[in-house]
Amino acid sequence: MRHRRTRITIAVVAVVLLLLAGAIYLRAKAPPEVARLLPESDGIIYINLRPLRAATHFDKMPVTHSPSYQKFINATGIVFERDLDEVAFALEKMPNPNGPNGPVAYSEVFEGHFDGGRLKKYLASIADAKEMYAGHTIYDIRNDGRTDRVALLGYDMVAVSNTPTPEQIHSIVDRYRTAALSFTGSSLLAAHYHDVPLLSIAWGIGKIGLPFSGSQQKQISVDGVQLPISPNATFIASVRWSGALRLRVEEIAESAQSAAQTAQSLRSVLDLVHAAENTPPGQQMDPNVRSVLNSAKVRQKKNHVVLTASIPDALVRAALTPVKTPPTATPPAAKQPADKP
Length: 341
Description:
Blueprint: H1 2-29, H2 33-36, E1 43-48, H3 49-56, H4 67-76, H5 80-83, E2 84-93, E3 104-112, H6 116-126, E4 129-133, E5 136-143, E6 146-154, E7 157-161, H7 167-177, H8 187-192, E8 200-207, E9 220-222, E10 225-227, E11 234-241, E12 245-252, H9 256-275, H10 287-295, E13 297-301, E14 304-311, H11 313-320
Antiparallel strand pairs: 1-2, 1-8, 2-3, 3-7, 4-5, 5-6, 6-7, 8-11, 9-10, 11-12, 12-14, 13-14
């Protein structure tokens, strides 16, 4: 009997360990929480600032803040360069591109280190109205003809939305209440997150036509070469670290023929770049940008086109280094004429 109880105990422990291992595996494969909380949208952008901050120390670089941003820092103690860890954006195309939101409205979820008390006090001081929804206060702030809605989800998470209706901010609050379910999220995330390479520190999913407010016939042109990219094509762009930063952009075209046209046009652009290597010194391309283009490779499989390239660390540091305005030289004082005798 004693041996039987021991076998039962071992079996129960083994089952529990298997369940825990499965939960950990599913959690690792799940999209980041800030992305899972986003509402339904036409595009998603995610950035993990932790590894970027550790590699470049951009938070320690001197930055001159605008007066409005400095006022925000003074009131809340939040410095985004230092305190923001992760951010995800949902992009929603507007039916009227000439409205207050322009062609695209945004919903965002920020995760980082925030002083909730100071932030609530600041939001209350600038809000035009407040709404209680599912136990959370939503602050309505009028801004350039639209309403920015802000909600503190937890001690380390804030949601913002400037969409015309409160539906999106309500959706974020509702998703936050079920955040423990690893695979919750928008339909766009469910359909394409598995296409994002593992360990990507930044990625985006959406259609290239999203920012366009007018004709669907718009095309991208690079050095005079037209890229026949349909506005209805879905793109998955990502940046990950594997000894160096690796850029990957994948187009899911409407057909294999469209994908072949895109691939050929991209190769033509890269050929032009390589042919321009012997340009006069005064017209040479930035060496870091040239390094990216020289490392670029294009491949096609059926209706998928994939562009890959390496991003040198120097380019990342240059992009994050604030531009210093040279001091204005003081003109020399005019020489006074000598007094006449």
